[in-house]
Design goal:
Layout lengths: L2 E7 L8 H14 L4 E6 L11 H4 L4 E4 L16 H12 L3 E5 L1 H5 L10 E4 L12 H13 L3 E3 L2 H11 L6 E3 L14 H5 L6 E5 L8 H14 L4 E5 L11 H10 L3 E5 L3 H10 L2 E4 L15 H8 L4 E3 L3 H7 L10 H13 L1 H17 L2 H12 L8 E7 L8 H7 L1 E7 L7 H8 L4 E5 L3 H9 L5 E6 L19 E4 L2 H11 L6 E3 L20 E5 L8 H12 L6 E5 L7 H4 L2 H16 L6 E5 L3 H4 L5 E4 L12 H7 L3 E5 L13 E2 L2 H13 L1 H18 L2 H14 L3 H8 L26
Parallel strand pairs: 1-2, 1-4, 2-3, 4-5, 6-7, 8-9, 8-11, 9-10, 11-12, 13-14, 13-15, 15-16, 16-17, 17-18, 19-20, 19-22, 20-21, 22-23, 23-24
Helix pairs in contact: 8-13, 13-14, 17-18, 20-25, 24-26, 27-28
């Protein structure tokens, strides 16, 4: 069971500011719980990937652009939010929706969707005496209609309880989330290592109330008093209220001798830069930082988590957070400059300020914050992911359906032939799926890759047959999560032939149901050889006849069994002149060499029982056009028999070297030797059974498939699911989002 969570903040993720960082970090926080799958609804299409790039690589996070659901909508606002959410929820069936923004939330007050909504609002009046009756009524109606309600701080919770006259049981504190590179057990000395003396960091937007012009004035004064003090300025978003000063500010940022202007940086790089600086600038106007404020600045927390003492205004919230005697409070531009000089010149002042940050890091540790979030999420139902399997000839997959049904709600679109794909039928299936599995890279794979929604995962399993078809060139790879091949050789061939990026591919071998095969053998089984499937000619039936002739020269008890259809029973083979000529020559050889009684065409057989009669199953395919996997020799191993194969390209990735030979003559000598040496034969059989059990038994392959469907091949997700780094190669992946155990409680 999983939580399918939609996350929407009425903000533009192309812009790097506190609100957009809040949303990205909340998504990261939700990812720390492997049961959560997060869809971020975008206000605007992403064009600047500075903030989103890291999460775009993660499997359990999807970015949803409204136009891909409703073609006429290119930007989400309060006028269309209800229609968009109804459309997407109708396809995805969310557990809950976390929404930030008063305007969009107001539009949902009478919607049936409200039962799924967890609001997070900060854009309301924080003064009880100034709040309007209309706003008060809206907040009270919202509280009465939802199951859970996120507030940023305990102070905000208490304010709303008093304002709305409610018990507050639905309120859950969701502090701004910051992820730190600082290790919990690192010492002050270790944290100070790498910090540059006399460096100040400002990372954020150019806004009037953020006192940017005042910061530049401070830097001019510091240049006269101590030219070694430098400011690192990261950010380039200019608010509307600063447009008239844009040129003046940019000129100073680019030309001032004590300012290093970095412009916009990816968030991870901004945090790394922050950790090298010794002070942070957070001195904002009284309009945003005042005693009535119920909010905590995301940027303030980022400075704290980077162990950067910050210059900031003395407010009630800041005093509760950092203490009454925090040494770097400032109430004017002049005092701001004085406190910077004090901090860079007096080590004790800096250390006292730094020591106050440790409590903040513990109080606002992500694992502590998530505990509050988890309690809210538990009020909403978990969902079983819906898996659609589409394709023809599902023989390599159907035995796994019982496993699929344990984890997923399974639907199957089974085609009689791959070209009989019905798009209208597929459209109905598409609307009911979270995960799509296309068996064979053919018509269904092409269609689903071009029609899947952004919230859906698409896996395509390719075998070998598809390499000669053009469907691989028609895929929209942006919608493909992973292409699965059953061997490394064919993974390389698919990437080369269809120009598929290697990171889009992974290998999961075919499975063998080891327990279903009888381990008993008839007395003369070792004189019976089997070629399971002789169509088409690349399967090497003529080589099997050569082997049989060599063996019968020494012992005429050897018999070759050929299972499966004869060529004349299969029009796709018999109607190809080259194939037909090949098999007519094979039949002529059987007659000419007197092998009619030694070559038995069995037709269809139940391999589980048939293999009790045979001691060796052969793989003799053309080396230049090799097998994708070749299941039947492994079936022999599972049935306590021997498998022997001629070397073909890529066989070393699939078979143990002990069963591979380089010529028919070598195979003949090996069979003769094994039949003379009982102990060696039994050892080979024992090793084969162990090999197939450890590598290809159905539960093992199912676990690989299950992990792929759960993690999408994201290496970090895969490692987290096992609780440690794994030695399994799964392409893709990003940084680890796991965290240490929870610390103490926080009352801010």
């Amino acid at each position: 069971m999983s939580r399918k969570i939609l996350l929407y903040g009425d903000l533009d993720l192309n812009v790097v500011d506190g609100s957009s960082i809040w949303l990205i970090n909340l998504a990261k926080l939700l990812l720390t719980d492997r049961e959560n799958y997060v869809d971020i609804l975008l206000k605007k299409q992403i064009r600047n990937h500075i903030l989103t790039g890291e999460l775009e690589k993660r499997y359990r996070v999807r970015f949803l652009y409204a136009k891909e659901y409703l073609d006429h909508i290119i930007e989400v606002d309060e006028n269309n939010i209800e229609k968009i959410l109804e459309t997407i929820d109708g396809l995805r069936d969310y557990s809950c929706m976390i929404l930030r923004g008063k305007k969009v939330t107001e539009r949902l007050l009478k919607s049936s969707l409200l039962s799924k909504v967890i609001p997070y609002l900060t854009d309301f009046c924080h003064n009880k005496e100034s709040v309007t009756d209309r706003e008060r009524q809206f907040l009270k109606s919202l509280y009465g209609s939802v199951k859970a309600y996120f507030v940023q701080t305990e102070a905000m919770k208490e304010y709303l309880k008093e304002l709305l006259l409610v018990d507050g049981e639905k309120f859950h504190v969701l502090h701004p989330v910051v992820f730190s590179g600082i290790q919990k057990d690192s010492s002050k000395k270790e944290r100070a290592f790498g910090k540059q003396d006399k460096t100040i960091i400002y990372a954020g937007k150019l806004a009037k109330d953020w006192n940017i012009r005042e910061l530049l004035e401070v830097m001019e004064g510091l240049w006269r008093k101590d030219p070694k003090i430098q400011l690192h300025f990261a950010g380039n978003k200019v608010n509307r209220d600063m447009w008239e000063y844009k040129k003046e500010i940019m000129d100073k940022l680019e030309q001032s001798p004590n300012i290093i202007f970095h412009g916009a940086l990816p968030h991870k790089e901004t945090h790394k830069l922050m950790e090298t600086c010794s002070l942070g600038y957070g001195f904002r106007s009284r309009k945003v930082d005042h005693d009535e404020s119920l909010e905590i600045s995301v940027k303030l927390l980022e400075y704290c988590f980077a162990d950067v003492p910050v210059i900031l205004r003395r407010t009630r919230m800041h005093r509760e957070l950092l203490g009454e005697d925090y040494p770097l409070y400032a109430d004017s531009v002049e005092e701001c400059q004085e406190k910077i000089l004090l901090a860079v010149e007096n080590g004790r002042t800096w250390e006292k300020a730094s020591s106050r940050l440790e409590w903040v890091r513990e109080c606002f540790a992500p694992e502590n914050i998530y505990e509050n979030v988890r309690q809210a999420l538990e009020k909403y139902p978990k969902k079983t992911m819906r898996l659609l399997v589409s394709g023809h000839d599902l023989k390599f997959l159907k035995p796994l359906f019982a496993y699929f049904e344990q984890e997923f709600n399974l639907e199957v679109q089974e085609l009689a032939e791959y070209m009989e794909f019905n798009p209208k039928e597929a459209q109905r299936y598409l609307k009911r799926a979270d995960i799509i599995w296309c068996e064979w890279l053919l018509a269904s794979a092409e269609w689903y890759s071009n029609h899947a929604y952004p919230h859906q995962s698409l896996f395509i399993r390719a075998h070998r047959f598809e390499i000669g078809r053009a469907y691989g060139r028609q895929l929209d790879l942006r919608r493909v999560t992973k292409i699965i091949t059953v061997s490394y050789y064919w993974m390389e061939e698919f990437t080369r032939r269809f120009r598929i990026p290697p990171e889009k591919c992974t290998v999961i071998n075919n499975f063998i149901e080891v327990d279903k095969y009888s381990k008993k053998k008839s007395e003369d089984a070792r004189y019976h050889l089997t070629l399971a499937g002789a169509l088409p000619k690349r399967k090497g039936l003529h080589r099997a006849l050569e082997l049989l002739k060599l063996l019968r020269k020494r012992d005429d008890r050897y018999v070759l069994h050929v299972t499966g259809k004869r060529p004349e029973e299969f029009p796709n083979t018999w109607n190809v002149p080259e194939e037909k000529e090949y098999y007519l020559n094979v039949y002529e050889t059987i007659e000419r060499e007197g092998l009619s009684d030694a070559v038995i065409f069995e037709g269809w057989v139940d391999m589980h029982h048939f293999l009790t009669r045979t001691g060796y199953v052969l793989s003799l395919s053309d080396s230049s056009f090799p097998e994708s996997f070749h299941v039947t020799p492994f079936e022999s191993m599972a049935a306590a028999g021997a498998a022997l194969a001629l070397r073909w390209e890529g066989i070393e990735y699939i078979y143990p070297e002990e069963v591979v030979a380089d010529s028919v003559e070598e195979l003949a000598m090996r069979i003769e030797y094994l039949n003379r040496h009982e102990e060696d034969y039994q050892n080979l059989v024992k090793q084969g059974l162990q090999f197939v059990t450890e590598h290809y038994d159905m539960p093992i392959i199912w676990e690989a498939i299950r992990q792929l469907l759960k993690t999408g091949g994201d290496y970090e997700e895969f490692c987290d699911s096992y609780g440690e780094r794994a030695s399994v190669t799964i392409p893709g992946g990003e940084e680890d989002l796991s965290h240490s155990e929870a610390g103490g409680a926080c009352t801010i």
